[in-house]
Amino acid sequence: MQVLITGGSGGIGFAIARHFAGAGHKVILADLNQQALAEKVAALQAEGGNAAAVLLDVTDLASITQCAAQYAIDILVNNAGIQHVARLEDFPPEKWQQLLNVMLTGPAMLSRAVLPGMRERNFGRIINIGSIHALVASPFKSAYVAAKHGLLGFSKVVALENADFNFSINTICPAYVKTPLVEQQIAAQAKEHNLTELQVIEQIMLAPMPQKAFIGVDEIAATAGFLCSDAARHITAQTLVLDGGWTAR
């Protein structure tokens, strides 16, 4: 199987790549950072994994089309993500649009590009990396929350449209994961809320979670692996929530 992972050089993306490579799949790490891609591919190859890299801009249709033509993708992991924290009235319109392009339109267009090949081979798995913010909201994250909420509806439609062959699409929604993206959010939220970074972690990020812990990238990777296994072949259009009990309240 060939597995394409967007945002493949990041914390979650690389953990997923390592998991699939360890299971014997060929992983293609997609990102905009060529140096980071080269380093991550080398790391996987040093571990005995079959890995390649592709420069991919998920906001550019030509880049998406070229990538889909280059590889026969069996499993697509839509993981690329960015964040911007600000009140809506202070949110730059171009930044708001960028977040939607990266985390909603990009996954849709990439899925659109790989679906014909999946249908032709009668096999396809799409894993969207969502967020707890696909289910709940937080202040100052209007674009991110809107994009992640939209991802759930998009996934349900694609599941219905492709229920006639061996295909599934699901969304993994973790609570906060300690990645560089979240580290940046801690500093940004400290500024918005006039708190220390430790207070942001304790009072905002982990406060709603009964288990009071960040989600591990290994948990997300293993969940993605399960969703692509034979045991999960009839799990589709679903939202798998890794939130330490957050949404039980």
UniProtKB/TrEMBL annotation:
PROSITE patterns: ADH_SHORT
E.C. no: 1.1.1.30
TM stretches of this protein: none
Sorted UniProt keywords: Oxidoreductase
One Pfam family this sequence matches: adh_short
Molecular function in Gene Ontology: 3-hydroxybutyrate dehydrogenase activity
Top-level EC class as recorded in UniProt: oxidoreductase
Assigned protein family: Belongs to the short-chain dehydrogenases/reductases (SDR) family.
PANTHER family: 3-OXOACYL-(ACYL-CARRIER-PROTEIN) REDUCTASE (PTHR42879), 3-OXOACYL-[ACYL-CARRIER-PROTEIN] REDUCTASE FABG (PTHR42879:SF2)
Name listed for the protein in its UniProt record: 3-hydroxybutyrate dehydrogenase
Organism: Rheinheimera muenzenbergensis
